[in-house]
Amino acid sequence: MYELTDADRIWNRACGDDPLRALPGDRALVDLLYAHGLTMNGGVLHAVECMTVEEQLDAECGFRYFGFDDVASLLSRAREIFEASDDLGKHEQQLDYEYAQFIPSDSSLVEQFESRLKSKPQDFEMLRPKDRD
């Protein structure tokens, strides 16, 4: 039987109902995963449409924190396209293609997260008892 690692538990906490936001790593992970989930659900423009401007800016910061500067720039560009209401269908496929090039799989996110957790553990809250359940 697979036993969850501390990294797994921190990741799960960020996806759960009670994520932590006090430290930069936790905050970045929560914001990145929120935007990534929306993108995987309906595409980059869908994510931009569903998020407030503040959530989008937080997501961009989250992607930058984990070294995905190109994704942060892509989200910013997508927001500009969405706000301009400029033939969204014309841009949708290209934006989604670019996102997939930068984030080919969830493993890309996991690897960056685990690397950052190892190099900057102080950026993440310690596990709480309920995180271990």
What would you say this structure looks like, in words?
This protein is an all-alpha fold and 133 residues long. The protein has one domain. It is built from seven helices and no strands. Helix 2 (24-42) packs across helix 4 (53-65). The model has no long low-confidence stretch (mean pLDDT 95).
Q: Total domains, how many? A: 1
N-to-C CA distance: 16 Å
Helix content: over 70%
Radius of gyration in whole Å, from Cα? 15 Å
Number of strands: 0
Counting DSSP H or I runs of 4 or more residues, the number of helices is 7
The succession of helices and strands, N to C, reads: HHHHHHH
Main beta-sheet annotation: none
Please render the helix and strand layout as text.
Blueprint: H1 6-15, H2 24-42, H3 44-50, H4 53-65, H5 69-84, H6 88-102, H7 106-119
Summary of the model, kept short:
This protein is mostly helical and 133 residues long.
Task: Supply database-style keywords.
7 helices; 133 residues; elongated; mainly alpha
